[in-house]
Amino acid sequence: MKMSAGLTLEHLLRRLSVGQRIAIMLALLLLPMAALSVVSLDVLEHQELDFRQSVQESINALLPLATLEHYLERAQVDELEAETDTSAPNFTALTHNIDRSFSTIETTDDGPDLPAGLITQAQRAWRDARPAVQRLVERIRPLRIGDPRLSDALSRKDIQQAIHDVSLARLHLAAVIKARYTHAIALRHRELRWLIWSWVVTLSVATVLIGLFLASILRPIKALETAARRLGAGESGVRVDMRGRDELTEVAERFNEMSENWETTRQALITETAMDPLTGVLNRRGILAALAAALNAHRMRDQGLSVFMMDLDRFKHINDTQGHSAGDRALVWVAGKMRECLRDSDHLGRYGGDEFLAILPGTGASQAQAIAQRMQRAIHDGASTDPSLPLVSIGIATAPDDGWDADTLIGAADAVLYTCKQRGREPEPPS
């Protein structure tokens, strides 16, 4: 069924020219690759942009908390005291930045890449840490570094509590960012796998279709090559069965015409080589080939076979006194009479000059004798009233009595013919 469907599609493709099929093959290969290349570049650029945004968001979210934790740790070890008149760190701005970070998380907490449990824990940690930070901010705001009241305002217990709460909020927020990053990586991997499979499927389909297009081109070429090789080897009846409207179908049709013309010419050459052009019977080569084939066939079946060696009487006189045209007419007439007396399965050939050889397959000595006598009477009756027509003498040889070899049989028949001509025209039975 698959083979039939493939051949049907191949026949449909042959309705297109070779140039059109090549153009379609290129389109099947290049257009999907171009489209996938554009999509791949777009996906990769989108992933790169998302990665940069993710890094920036991570920095924006974690940096305020880390900075706030750092300043609180400095305050814990009294590093806020300085010799200069530098203002205290802007805890209020840091607090507002952290609030914005968590507010951003709250506005996107329904997104598929945000784990809700981690977000809730991070928000709860910041809500727990914010009051302690806010109390520190309110106590630090009216003071300046170098003010002796700063140490009294910042109790170590409050700072430690604020540091603990801020650190806990930072850890939870880092866990949220890590989870978002892990989810984003998994999403990117899925997109990449989708791209890879898209490439694989597209190229596979394109490969199958291109294979069918190539088969529709290469299979006819292979068929033509095989047919040409068979024809070159001398095989007859070679034809290329091809249907379509393309150039290769046209070539196949011309090839079939050429093969048919060649067979006609070859048959004409074979006929011309094996046939005597004057009498229309086999020539010497043709009758000897027929004798060899008949001997092989009858030897295997162990059947008898007889041959007639025939020579025309008074032919030389006709040729000398009436001319070669009369001699040619005499040969044509006597060949026709011989053919009338022989059977359809018998073979008749002009052995040379005015000598004829007949092959009678499956014929014994007595039957061959009867046929020879009938032939002589028919020729005698026709020639008795017309001196321009010849008579005939016949020598008979029969296999296997006289042998299975062609030369032996012809020699035996020729010997009988010689004896027959010496005694008269009555054919001598084979010895």
From TrEMBL:
Q: Matching PROSITE patterns, A to Z?
A: GGDEF, HAMP
Tell me the ranges covered by the HAMP domain, including all copies: 215-267
Superkingdom of the organism of origin: Bacteria
* Domain GGDEF, chain residue ranges per copy: 303-431
Q: Name one Pfam family in it.
A: GGDEF
Q: Name one GO biological process term.
A: signal transduction
* Catalytic activity field: 2 GTP = 3',3'-c-di-GMP + 2 diphosphate
Q: Which UniProt keywords apply?
A: Membrane, Transmembrane, Transmembrane helix
Q: Where are the transmembrane segments?
A: 22-44, 194-218
EC code: 2.7.7.65
EC class, as a word, reads transferase
- Cofactors per UniProt? Mg(2+)
GO-annotated molecular function? diguanylate cyclase activity
Q: Name one GO cellular component term.
A: plasma membrane
Return the protein name: diguanylate cyclase
Organism in which the protein naturally occurs: Acidihalobacter prosperus
